[in-house]
Automatic annotation (TrEMBL):
EC number: 2.7.7.89, 2.7.7.42
One GO MF term attached to the UniProt entry: magnesium ion binding
Gene from which this protein is expressed: glnE
Signal sequence residues: none
InterPro entries: GlnE (IPR023057), GlnE_rpt_dom (IPR005190), NT_sf (IPR043519), PII_UdlTrfase/GS_AdlTrfase (IPR013546)
Protein's name according to its UniProt entry: Bifunctional glutamine synthetase adenylyltransferase/adenylyl-removing enzyme
Keywords noted in UniProt: ATP-binding, Ligase, Magnesium, Multifunctional enzyme, Nucleotide-binding, Nucleotidyltransferase, Transferase
Catalytic activity entry: [glutamine synthetase]-L-tyrosine + ATP = [glutamine synthetase]-O(4)-(5'-adenylyl)-L-tyrosine + diphosphate; [glutamine synthetase]-O(4)-(5'-adenylyl)-L-tyrosine + phosphate = [glutamine synthetase]-L-tyrosine + ADP
Cited PANTHER family: BIFUNCTIONAL GLUTAMINE SYNTHETASE ADENYLYLTRANSFERASE_ADENYLYL-REMOVING ENZYME (PTHR30621:SF0), GLUTAMINE SYNTHETASE ADENYLYLTRANSFERASE (PTHR30621)
Annotated source species: Murinocardiopsis flavida
Class of this enzyme: transferase
Length: 1021
């Protein structure tokens, strides 16, 4: 057995198996063949340790044995490995990762020396690679058109021999690079750049050989080779097609342009053949010219003017995307530069083409659709979460924003990502995540291809034994030494999932479409152009708007960069709002209030719907703007419709309780609850204007938060009075909602109509209990109307017995006595919408039992009561309508307005609720629905009244939202009426000017019909 004693064979084989060799006995035999002693020489042990640390120890050992057998001096090889640890590491890593490079070393035994010395550790420059290969084929790198010639180095006199020499030299350069790559002496992007430079050098040398082979053709033309795709972007793989485009022009003095193009085509074909031919070195890679104009159907070469004409008239969106990475890589440098000068401006204006973004997104979907199902979850390049997801995302962002930002015009994916991050187009964390994922995926792709130097992008199938072994070696090469298969699989799934998430976030971000639709000159604001654009967009004060824009976009901060991206798009959204000036001012104020808050601008950039909604709300509603400025962080609710939906009462109540517990003094506690109400007012107003909710949802939400605020303030008031009086309150208190509050129909401008009921505890003196109740009510009203940043909540008790002349708070027995002796018909009518909302629930239930016989009289209201109600209605119309108000436009008291509809519903309740339990409701529309369902009103009449009520209620609410102050009439001024109409969703062909008239026509028509129904039903006319 040579140097290994027979009796130690088994022990040594076991030791080798523990080192990572799958078959210890086989490993021992191969070591013996290679002249390595696993038991003796320390130098030999170091070589064996290096072999065992390779990605595939068995492959590395087999390769070393083959290399030692083929080398004329294996002793020299072993000595060199012992004396040069760097060489040992590089060679063993290569042997364990690439059977193809091992084959090269066996064919060229001395080439292991390429991995030794300073040159093996150093990355060559692009010019060094070019000059070296041109010299190798006997061409002068300094010539404008280098031509190959026989050389001593080439040791041949024919083009085929020169081509073979070139292919061998290429493999040696790849060997050097793989040695550095596998020992972590270069990054994956550095390796990709070197491969691209090496490919460019090969093409230049191949063109030199082609010139020598076709000397007559070379004399007729100038030929430039433009690299596309990964080669153009300097991010080439170990084995990848090299995409090119050929540009040709007649040589100086040649007048026959067609002959020059034919000659150039022959040269180009000869060039393409050299890297793609197969000999003992195999095939280097294919040169692919399919990205040329008209693809494979088009001529192989074109003059510069032909390229320009094609891209100006016929090119599709994907062709401009392909040109993004274009750069001259070989041939006539001057012609290549002229090509770039002519084509680049068209590339960076491609995003202005109709449906550009949609076309690019559709292309990505087509690529995915053609992936074989069996490979989809293992495709490193094309599959979901693969390299293409990152590349398409980056390229789309570059093309959309690069029109106006030259810093984004980088060919490489990683360089472009850095620029997008620096410019604020992609969040720092997102960019860092994509960069890390891109490097990981490219590293996996490189290792896959290094194995056999074949073009592949598919992870091995771990379900097969062979595939699992390949995955294991990949995992070890990537540093997963403990559990290579499990760890690599988990890392791939994690990276793919994160890439897919970020791809969908960036690639399908609607802001891309919005920016792409902007004319090129408007994609970024300039001081000279901004004023004219602002005037055209409808800003009434362009100078003021320009100051806001300058404040938001000036400077070199990331915040300013993001604003410069957002604002050109947002200006269009502001212009669509009723008040663009107010919208831009509000945006500036909110942005300044949030300062450097990191999530704010990231939210606007990454979710365009938030920015668009914000522009609409700020340009439409002074009420919303005021609320948002009081708590600008609330802009986050615009991100999702689910955040605009009314919150459950239980959630609001729990938050109010928490606020009361957190704060010790009454004023601070109630202020916190009022802040909760302010947030809900903003949520409701935004949902209203964005049409996420309807008028009934608005009433429900406003009523709910008002009730919860009053209940929390009431408990605080009771606690304070008890502290001041030194003991528990001697009475129970409940608050009864009345009017629109009780009907769940509150609007933004409504006061909360209430009545206060108390009931002394057993043994308490009534007078003392009443004084305590008065103190609580006074404290309640004080707390709710304290001056603070939040809108006040005013409680109106005018609907109590005897109105303003009656006591503010009564006992339950006092209410019973009053209603039993003195109550009038209008009070019965008012009680139809009474409902307990705060305080003692048992007392509230007793009050409801008290008033039910009064508001739902047995047998229905008598004729005298009906006549009294009709008189009251007529009197109210005559006396309460404001002087000068147009009765056809007053939403509350006008003809066909809220009052008309509500009085019809209430009369139906007073007449029929005793026999129809469904009419025992506080809601106007609910009462109409029940009456129509049971034949107490014609369904068509009920529908007419409902339409009018909804429109009047909506107009009244939106008047408050638009103006920031209450108003009960459709505005008479054209400007205000137009703003109201636009907020309500009315549009006209004249950019909104006629929207106000459409609203006026609609409102008068709807309320006229409702008035006719009201007069017929209410007056039995």
């Amino acid at each position: 057995m040579g140097v290994v004693a027979h009796e130690t064979f088994q022990r040594t084989a076991g030791s080798l198996a523990r080192r990572g060799f799958s078959d210890g006995s086989r490993a021992l035999r191969l070591l013996d063949e290679a002249g390595l002693d696993p038991e003796g020489d320390p130098g030999h042990l170091r070589i064996i340790a290096a072999l065992s640390a390779a990605a595939d120890p068995d492959l590395a050992l087999l390769g070393f044995a083959r290399l030692a057998e083929s080398d004329d001096s294996p002793a020299e090889l072993r000595a060199a490995l012992i004396d040069h640890p760097d060489l040992c590491a590089r060679l063993t890593k290569v042997l364990g990762a690439s059977s193809a490079l091992t084959d090269h070393l066996v064919r060229h035994p001395g080439d292991w020396r390429e991995l030794r010395g300073a040159d093996a550790a150093r990355a060559p420059s692009a010019e060094e690679l070019r000059s070296g290969l041109l010299h190798l084929v006997g061409a002068d790198p300094n010539d404008t058109a280098p031509t190959a010639a026989p050389t001593a180095a080439a040791d041949c006199t024919d083009p085929e021999g020169l081509a073979h020499t070139l292919r061998v030299a290429y493999r040696r350069r790849v060997l050097r690079l793989a040695g550095r790559d596998l020992t972590d002496r270069c990054t994956v992007d550095e390796a990709s750049a070197e491969l691209a430079d090496l490919a460019a050098a090969v093409l230049d040398a191949a063109l030199a050989i082609a010139r020598a082979e076709h000397a007559e053709d070379a004399a007729l033309c100038r030929l430039a080779v433009v690299g596309m795709g990964k080669c153009g972007g300097r991010e080439l793989n170990y084995v990848s097609d090299v995409d090119v485009v050929f540009v040709a022009e007649p040589a100086e003095g040649v007048e026959d342009a067609q002959a020059a193009q034919r000659a150039a085509a022959r040269l180009a074909a000869a060039l393409m053949r050299i890297p793609g031919e197969t000999d003992s070195e195999g095939t280097l890679w294919e040169v692919d010219a399919a990205l040329r104009p008209e693809g494979k159907s088009g001529p192989l070469t074109r003059p510069l003017a032909g390229h320009v004409a094609y891209y100006e008239r016929w090119a599709k969106t994907w062709e401009f995307q392909a040109l993004l990475k274009a750069r001259p890589i070989a041939g006539d440098a001057e012609l290549g530069a002229a090509y770039m000068d002519a084509i680049a401006p068209m590339v960076w204006q491609a995003a202005s083409r109709p449906n550009f973004v949609d076309d690019v997104q559709a292309m990505r979907r087509r690529v995915e659709a053609h992936i074989p199902a069996a490979e989809a979850d293992r495709q490193v390049k094309l599959g979901p979460g693969g390299l293409r997801d990152i590349e398409f995302s980056v390229q789309l962002l570059q093309l959309v924003h690069g029109r106006s930002d030259p810093t984004l015009r980088a060919g490489g994916t990683l360089a472009a990502l850095d620029a997008l991050s620096s410019g604020g187009y992609v969040g720092r964390e997102d960019a860092a995540g994509l960069s890390a994922a891109y490097r990981f995926l490219r590293r996996v792709e490189h290792l896959l291809q290094l194995s056999r130097l074949r073009r592949t992008h598919v992870l091995p199938d771990g379900a097969t034994p062979e595939g699992q072994e390949h995955v294991r070696s990949l995992g070890r090469a990537l540093g997963f030494t403990a559990n290579p298969v499990t760890d690599l699989t988990a890392a791939w799934r994690r990276v793919a999932g994160e890439v897919r998430r970020l791809h969908e976030k960036l690639f399908y971000r609607p802001l891309l479409n919005a920016v792409a639709r902007l004319p090129g000159a408007e994609a970024r604001l300039t001081a000279d152009q901004a004023r004219d654009r602002l005037v055209a967009l409808g800003f009434a004060d362009p100078s003021g708007a320009l100051r806001h824009l300058e404040s938001l976009t000036s400077g070199v901060t990331r915040r300013a960069a993001i604003q410069r991206t957002l604002l050109p798009v947002m200006l269009g959204w502001f212009s669509a709002a009723p008040s663009p000036d107010a919208g831009l001012l509000g945006f500036r104020q909110v942005s300044e209030a949030l300062g450097r808050t990191p999530w704010y601008l990231r939210l606007l950039r990454d979710d365009v719907r938030v920015a668009e909604r914000m522009a609409h709300l700020l340009g439409t509603s002074r009420y919303v703007t005021d609320l948002l400025l009081r708590a600008p962080e609330a802009v986050a609710i615009l991100d999702d419709d689910a955040d605009l939906v009314q919150r459950r009462n239980a959630e609001l109540a729990a938050e109010a309780d928490a606020a009361l517990r957190r704060h010790g003094d009454s004023e601070t506690a109630v202020t916190a609850v009022r802040a909760l109400r302010r947030r809900e007012l903003l949520r409701t107003a935004a949902a209203d204007l964005l049409e996420v909710t309807g008028i009934e949802g608005v009433g429900d939400a406003l009523t709910a938060v008002t009730a919860i605020t009053i209940d929390a303030a009431l408990r605080t008031a009771i606690a304070r009075v008890e502290r001041e009086r030194g003991g528990p309150l001697c009475t129970r208190i409940t608050v009864i909602a009345m009017g629109r509050f009780g009907g769940n129909e509150l609007s933004y401008a409504s006061d909360a109509d209430v009545m206060y009921v108390h009931d002394p505890v057993e043994g308490a003196e009534t007078g003392s209990a009443t004084e305590s109740a008065k103190a609580v009510v006074f404290e309640l009203q004080r707390l709710l109307e304290l001056p603070c940043a939040d809108p006040p909540l005013r409680l109106d008790a005018d609907l109590r017995p005897e109105g303003k002349n009656g006591p503010m708070v009564r006992t339950l027995d006092s209410y019973a006595a009053y209603y039993g002796r003195w109550s009038s018909t209008w009070e019965s009518q008012a009680l139809l919408r009474a409902v307990p909302v705060a305080g003692d629930p048992e007392l509230g239930a007793r009050f409801v039992r008290l008033i039910d016989p009064i508001r739902y009289p047995a047998g229905g209201i008598e004729d005298d009561g009906v006549r009294e109600i009709r008189k009251l209605k007529a009197r109210m119309e005559a006396e309460r309508l404001p002087r000068g108000a147009d009765p056809t436009l007053h939403t509350k008291l006008g003809r066909g307005g809220l009052s008309d509809v509500e009085w019809v519903a209430q009369l139906l309740q007073l007449r029929h609720a005793y026999e129809l339990p469904g009419l025992c409701t506080t809601g106007t529309l609910d009462a109409l629905d029940v009456a129509a369902a049971h034949g107490r009103i014609d369904p068509d009449d009920a529908a007419t009244l409902e339409v009018a009520w909804r429109l009047a209620a909506r107009v009244r609410g939106v008047v408050m939202l638009v103006r920031g102050k209450a108003g009960d009439s459709v505005p008479t001024s054209l400007q205000d009426r137009t703003a109201l109409a636009l907020a309500l969703g009315y549009r006209s062909e004249d950019d909104g000017e006629g929207a106000g008239e459409l609203l006026l026509q609609d409102y008068r028509q709807v309320t006229r019909r409702a008035r006719a129904v009201m007069e017929r039903v209410f007056y039995d006319d």
